[in-house]
Amino acid sequence: MFTGLVESLGHVVAAAPEPPGLRLVVDATEVASDARIGDSICTSGCCLSVVRIDGSCLTFELGPETLSRTTLGGLVAGDPVNLERSLRLSDRLGGHLVTGHVDGMGRLASRVEEGDWITCRFEAPAPLLAQMAGKGSVAIDGVSLTVVDVSPTEFSVALIPHTLACTTLGSLAVGDRVNLETDIVFKYVDRWLSARHSS
Per-residue pLDDT for 188 more than 90? Predict the structure, then answer.
């Protein structure tokens, strides 16, 4: 479990195919300082397990499910990634509860600069949009954000200067894909309602 508050930006050192998956090596800077084999690290929104540690570099193994549901399969050496260590029960929950289980991908449809802020609109699959609400929470590439509004095809968020400077969201261009995780409470309510209607 994570909070969606990015601790640092890492950079991809290598992304090597290992059929049917991928071996990803990330220079994780300070996040690697106390890492252990088996630790969970939220990497641009996706919970990955550390399988090797070499100094500040952490190695992860990505399976077919991860590659099909996330943008991580498209990473190349040099790409930045958002990193967060797992939540301790004694930590402050400054963002919202993020599982690191990506629900699907969205696409940046537009970005409008408003002073130092940027308002971004993202296209997303209809089932994910149904699990969003204005003033609710969403994780975009592992970043906890408040939804501004939702339409049948898009949702919007407002990015403050700190988020723009300290996460990968600041460098997004129109057309770029992102990893999306909807709020866990919405998921359970949606599942309960679906089961109730089907019975």
Answer: no
